[in-house]
Amino acid sequence: MRNVRRLVTALAAAGAVILGTPASAHAGAIGSTPVRTFEYSVGGMTVKVPTGCMLTHIIRGNGRKITYQNAGVGCAFVAALGTGFCNWRIDFTYADTNNRTYRTSRGRTHAECKIDPMRTNPPQTLPRYGKACARLYVNGVRRVSQCHHITK
User: Fold this and answer.
1) Entry pTM
2) Contact partners, residue 87, CB within 8 Å, separation at least 6
3) Which residues make beta-bridge pairs with 89?
4) Tens of pLDDT along 108-133?
C-alpha cells in the first residue's frame, strides 16, 4: 500500500509538472524530475537504476521564509523492484537571482541501499530571492536536481 501511495503521489506530481504548474514558493510548490537510467559500482557489483524513478521536491513558505522542505525519490514499475540507491545523499542548495549558489545544506551520506531515499530540511529564512534546489547524489555523483524559484 505504501508503494501505491508513493506511485500515486509521484504520478500526480509529474502530471502537475507536465501541465506547467508554476514552481514559485508563495504558498508552496511541489515538483518532480525523472531520474535518468544509470549504472554504478558498489563493492565490486554493478547496480543499474532503470527508468521509473522521480526526485520529488516539496517546499512550503512565503517569500524568503521556508517553513517546510522535503525531497525524496519514488520509484514505480520495474524500478521499484531494484536494489535502489546505495551511498546516497540529498543536498539542498540555494542560489540568488543571478544563479550563484550561496548556501548548501549537505545531507549525510547513507551507506545502505534504499529504494526511497528521503530528507527533510529545517525551516529557515533565506537572505536572498532566487531558487531552492534538491539534489540527489549516488556514490558522490549528482544524478538529478529539482528546483523551485523563490520570488516576492
Assistant:
1) 0.79
2) 42, 109, 110, 111, 138, 139, 140
3) 137
4) 999 988 989 999 999 999 999 999 99
